[in-house]
Every structure is written in C-alpha cells, then in structure tokens.
Design brief:
Rossmann fold, binds magnesium ion, Arc Repressor Mutant, subunit A, alpha/beta, binds adenosine-5'-triphosphate, six-stranded parallel β-sheet, 29 helices, single chain, 18 strands, 4 domains
C-alpha cells in the first residue's frame, strides 16, 4: 500500500504521531481522538515505508476483543495477518509454550478452578469468601506486592482485606507454594514466568527482542505493574515503543492497573516524545457536551469534528422492567428498515443489569448479543447454582426460596446495589465488592427461575436447564446482526451510532461499593467511557424502583445526572454545545463571560502582559524550588511562549528549551497562563 494513502485524512497532529521518528512515543489524548487509528496507521505506514518488517511488530492491547478489533483495523489498512496483535497474557503464553516445546519441558497445567483451589487452602481457618481472597491475591499480584509488603500496600491503597493482613500474607505464600508443588500455573504466573525466562537467558531474550522489535500498546492507562514489567523486559533498552492512552479512561484501578504509569511515562523517559490529540472525530458536539458534563468539566475539552446531532435524552421510568421495555421501544424507533441492528448498543454498569434488558429486547423480537458473552449466566456462581437446581427430582420451589433467602440474610444486606442503607449506619458488615456482585448475579438468576416457574406447567430441574440453555443460545449468536449489550468496562475502545445508557442510579453509577475518593473518581471515568461511545444519538435512562431477587427497592438518581441534565437543558434551549474549556478558563481568569473571546494577536513581548505573567510565575516557581530562575525557563523560552501562545502540550513541546521533563512538570501551568491571557484579551 502507498505510504501517503495511510496519512491521508489524518490531521496534522495525527500525522505527526504516525510518521515521527525517535521514541519512545506516547500519545495522550481523549476519547474518540483517533488514538487507536493512529496506532494502526503507524504500524501500516512504517511497513509501507520500508522501515518495518511486519513480522517484527508486536501490538498489545488489553482484552482479546480489543486485540481482535486491532487486527481487523490493521486488515482494513491493507495489512495481512502477519502482524502479531494480542494481549499481554496471550503473547506470554505463546512464548512460554514455544520455549517449553524447544526445551522438551512438559507444560504445567493451567489452574482453571482457582476459587475451589483457594477455598481448599483457606480450609476451616477462617470464615471468608474464597472469591474475595482470590480477588485480593490477584490484586496483590498485579501490583507486584510481595507477601511481606502486603499489609502496608493494602493499607496505602485503601483496600479492605478479606482476612487480617498477616493471614492474607501467609495465604499468598501458601498459594504460591501449593501451585508450585502441584505444577499449576494461574494467568498471572504466565506473565511472571515469561519475565523470568527472559531475564534468566540473555540469548533467548535477545531472540525475543529481535523478533518483536517494534512494540505498540493501546489503552496504556489500564496497564498494571506486572504487565508493565513484562513490557520492560520485552523492550530491553530499545526505544522502539509507541503507546497511546487516555488518563480519563482509566477504569481498571480496582484490578491493579496503575494509570500513573502512563502519566509518569514522559517524566521517566527523558527521550520520549509526547503527542496530544485534541480533536474528536467520533461524536457530535451534543454528545461531547454530555461527555464533558460526565466528568464535571474536569477534562480538557475535545474539539468536535462531527456536525450537529440530536439533543441527548434523559428519562426516568417507574421500574426496571418499564425501563427495559422503553429501551426496546427506543431501539425500534432508532431503527429504520435496512439499517443494521449493530449500530446500536445498550450499556450498563453491572452484568446483572443485562438480564431484564436482554429479555425485553428479545420479547420485542430485537436480536441481541452480549459483548464478551459475560452476562450473569456465564458467571461461576450462577453456573454452580444452575447445576444444583437442574438435578432431576429437585423441588424447585423449595430450592428457589432457599436461594432467595440466602440472598436476603439479615435486612442490612438486602441493600444490594446501592440502596442508601449501605452508605448509612446500617452498612452491611463484612460485605465486599465481590459479595455484592455475586449476589446481584444470583438475584438476576433467581428472577429467571421465577419466570421459568410461571412458564412451565410441569417444572423440573432438567426442564429449567433446557430453558436456560435456550436463553444462552441467543446470547451466543455471535455472527448475526444484533443490538449489542455490554457493561461499561466491556465497551471500552468501541463505538456505536446510537447508545442507550441504562440504570443511571445511585448504587450503579457510582457502584455502591465505591467509597474512597479514588474509587468514586474511577466510577466517574467509567460514566465518561460509556457516554463517549456514542457517535450521534445518546439516550440515558434510570428506574425509580428495581427488583433485586424477590425484593423491590426504591432507587435514587445517579448524582451525575444533575450535570448531565443541565447540559441537556442547555442544548434544548437551542444554545450551542457548551465550550467547557473556554468556560472554565473564563472563570479562572475572572473575566465576565459576556462577549466573545478575542482572536490571538501578535504582540511585542516586551510590553506583553503574558510575558510579565510568565516571568512572575517563573519567579514564584524558582523561589519555591530554591533554584535560580533560568533553571525553570530561560528568558528566550518565555519570550517564545509569549509570542507563539501555544494552546496545547505538543505546541509547547516544539518550543526551544522545553524538554519532556519540563513539559511534564510545567505544561499545564504554562498553558493555563496562556489561555487565561487569551481569555482576558
Ligand atoms: P477511545 O479513547 O475511545 O479508544 P480513540 O482515541 O482510540 O478512542 P479511534 O477509535 O481511533 O479513537 O477513533 C474514533 C473514531 O474517529 C473512529 O471511527 C475513527 O475512524 C475516526 N477518526 C479518527 N481520526 C479521524 C480523522 N482524522 N478523520 C476522520 N475520522 C477519524
Ligand atoms: Mg481506542
């Protein structure tokens, strides 16, 4: 393919990201700004340009689904399947298998029933949910926390250990030992083993580095320290690394991801080239207004490129079933004959919420597909429960009421997802995120069984099993055209013309177990991820009442709805979509918001108020750091800034005397001064 064709249709900054040499290169940019597009184009461009042998490329992403997406985008750019694209785990496993094969080693067994395995280790020493212990083991592993450091690390991260920290540390040891003894490996061992092999054998490491010498990582904000360690080992001392990410979309902190790795990249790597992209190509200005409202204006605003679209909607319904039915109607409304159903998606915060929606759509004859197939029916707890309820001869009614009772032990635990009770004095004691998630899944399952009992005149265990299997058959229909159902997490990186975001209630958005500032901030970013999936239509819904198992609970609107509602009100009045960035800067500059922002004018730096402001800022900075002023920035640099008035990081990066370290340290303050000056005229 012609190299020029690969940069056609890219903006200046994107072209720079595709063609620039040197590195490592880090692209920091908001949703829909073309990060993934730039990443795939860069791979293709360097191949077309003869700089890269496609077989030497390794493109890493976060999930298998994302890797598939990457491969299909590469194919669309004219690449055949000779570029390796995969997840950290997938690539590590491939390398290990090859190595085991080459050295005649019998591969260890993959530990697939981790919960059971851990349950045995816990034995009768404590009354604790094995699943919680597993989550905690995985968190510690992802964070590279050694057993000895567990107590301190858990405290610093604000974790609630399922066991006393000392016991947890002991269990971490025991878990590793037992696996070693029985020659079992878990998923994270794959990463650790790959690292160990590379470190132990220089020749092998060199061969691997030669083979994958051009490294690319999408969604870098969700990389955890263990994955980062593997990346560093793959990389060796090469600078041939290209990463893209968006700090505002970091949504895997709970799982051990560390968005600081992205933020600190430029600081840690003096050679790095930082590129930011400010234009959004995915969404209408109306949707971007909502996106910025979702983050309460905390993000740098993105410049929309799409034309205007309809004003997003926000509706409340009396209960979850009415909400689901209304979504089905809205989907039909947005669907005209000849369109594909796959243009539309319904996004929710938790797996359990997928069930009533999936059913409502199916009732209306709308084909649906659950992204990643990870509905509650696919969870371990539901599969186990189904197995036990499917036995021939079982008294289903009795078994079901037992299940319901187990879901509603003690009234304080029925708070379920986000009843206010769990933030108040009646907070369920000892309930962890995993408990709540599991209960939600089982509750969703319980409702299915209740429904089965009303449908089948002669209910039986095997009858239930068969009926559930038919539901799943729909779920697994992956090839046909269908409306997509996904959790916010599962929707990352994807886009649809019409997006319905459901269940915008306290307890889901934010999730009930988010308590610390960091957790709540992550929940807010999740909402941002959901909203920014939409290209032209966005519909938001919530329900005043929701069933949870056999109970019905009153629901409160998500606290974020206030901002979203006011953004909608603004748009409905026919105002232009909100230019949040200008608004925020105006406030900061304490200038009345009346009157347009004047255009940039060339001014003589000598009597330029910006130059004065910059010098004043430099003086304060120098005093605070106790260094001479020129260490912060030279006069020449300040003069250049005052003259060119950069508005973005990459413009600033191109100026004399501004290296990556200074950029990382001072860019936001300098850019604020510039924009305040522009706003003040
Ligand atoms: P996310 O943060 O959600 O992963 P992203 O930054 O990776 O988003 P992309 O998915 O690469 O963004 O791009 C968003 C959409 O905009 C895609 O449909 C892409 O094809 C389109 N796009 C990107 N750049 C351009 C451009 N210069 N011209 C036209 N369309 C573009
Ligand atoms: Mg992307």
């Amino acid at each position: 393919m012609d190299a020029n064709a690969l940069v056609a249709g890219l903006n200046e900054r994107q072209t720079e990201a595709v063609t620039t040499t040197g590195g490592p290169i880090v692209v920091l940019a908001g949703a829909g700004s073309g990060k993934t597009r730039v990443l795939t184009r860069r791979i293709a461009w360097r191949i077309a340009d003869g700089q890269t042998d496609p077989r030497r490329v390794l493109a890493l992403t976060f999930t298998r689904k994302a890797a598939g997406e990457l491969r299909s985008r590469l194919r669309a750019s004219g690449m055949r399947d000779n570029v390796v694209a995969g997840t950290f785990h997938g690539i590590a496993l491939t390398q290990l298998r090859q190595r085991w094969h080459d050295r005649g080693i019998t591969p260890p067994t993959l530990l697939d029933r981790k919960i059971r395995f851990v349950a045995q280790l816990i034995g009768r020493r404590a009354r604790v949910e094995p699943l919680d212990v597993v989550s905690e083991l995985e968190w510690a592993r992802a964070r590279l926390v050694a057993p000895n450091d567990y107590g301190t690390a858990a405290e610093m991260a604000g974790r609630t250990p399922p066991l006393p920290a000392a016991d947890m540390a002991e269990l971490m040891e025991l878990y590793q030992q037992e696996k070693r003894r029985r020659r079992l490996v878990d998923f994270d061992d794959l990463l650790a083993l790959a690292i160990r092999d590379l470190r132990a054998d220089v020749d092998y490491a060199n061969a691997v580095r030669w083979r994958h010498r051009h490294l690319y990582v999408d969604e870098f904000q969700d990389v955890n320290p263990l994955q980062y360690e593997l990346l560093k080992t793959w990389r060796g001392d090469s600078n041939d690394l290209f990463v893209v990410g968006d700090p505002n979309q970091a949504i895997y902190g709970w799982n051990g991801a560390d968005p600081q790795l992205l933020a600190a990249f430029a600081r840690r790597e003096p050679e790095s080239v930082v590129i930011d992209l400010n234009d959004n190509y995915r969404s209408t200005p109306q949707i971007l207004t909502m996106a910025t409202a979702a983050l309460a204006g905390k993000s740098g605003a993105l410049v929309p490129h799409k034309g205007d679209g309809p004003v997003p909607t926000l509706n409340a319904y009396p209960n979850d079933l009415a909400e689901a039915a209304a979504i089905a109607d809205a989907i039909k409304m947005a669907h005209t004959v000849g369109d594909s159903w796959g243009r539309q998606a319904v996004l929710v915060r938790t797996n359990a919420q997928l069930v009533p929606i999936e059913q409502a759509l199916a009732d209306e004859g709308i084909p649906v597909r659950v992204r990643g197939g990870k509905g509650p029916l696919a969870t371990k707890e539901v599969k186990d429960e189904l197995r036990s309820l499917s036995r021939p001869g079982i008294d289903l009614v009795a078994a079901l009421s037992q299940l319901d009772a187990s879901l509603t032990v003690g009234d304080d635990t029925t708070s379920g997802p986000g009843n206010d009770a769990d933030t108040g004095p009646n907070a369920p004691r000892g309930k962890t995120a995993a408990d709540i998630e599991r209960e939600q899944n089982l509750a969703a399952f319980s409702r299915l069984v209740h429904e089965y009992l009303t449908i089948d005149p002669d209910p039986s265990g095997p009858g239930l099993n068969a009926w559930v299997a038919t539901l799943q058959a729909g779920e697994l229909d992956v090839d046909g055209d269908a409306v997509e159902l996904a959790t916010f997490h599962g929707a990352k990186g994807l886009e649809w013309e019409v997006v319905h975001v459901a269940g915008l209630e306290k307890g889901f958005v934010p999730i009930s177990y988010a308590k610390t500032g960091a957790q709540l901030a992550e929940e807010q970013r999740l909402l941002y991820v959901a909203v920014t999936r939409a290209e032209s239509e966005l519909h938001l819904t919530w329900a005043l009442e929701r069933s949870f198992g056999t109970k019905t609970m009153k629901r409160q609107p998500s606290p974020h709805l206030e901002m979203l509602q006011s953004a909608i009100a603004h748009l409905q009045k026919g105002h232009r979509p909100i230019d949040w960035k200008a608004k925020i800067n105006l406030n900061r500059a304490k200038v009345s918001s009346k009157g347009p922002i004047p255009k940039k004018t060339e001014r003589n730096p000598v009597d330029d108020p910006l130059f004065d402001a910059l010098r004043e800022w430099r003086r304060d900075r120098a005093r605070a750091a106790d260094v001479p002023a020129y260490v912060i920035f030279s006069d020449q640099t300040l003069r250049a800034i005052a003259k060119r008035r950069p508005t973005t990081r990459s413009q600033l990066a191109g100026m004399p005397g501004i290296g990556p370290v200074k950029l990382e340290r001072y860019a936001s303050e300098v850019l604020d001064l510039v924009s305040a000056d522009v706003a003040a005229g």
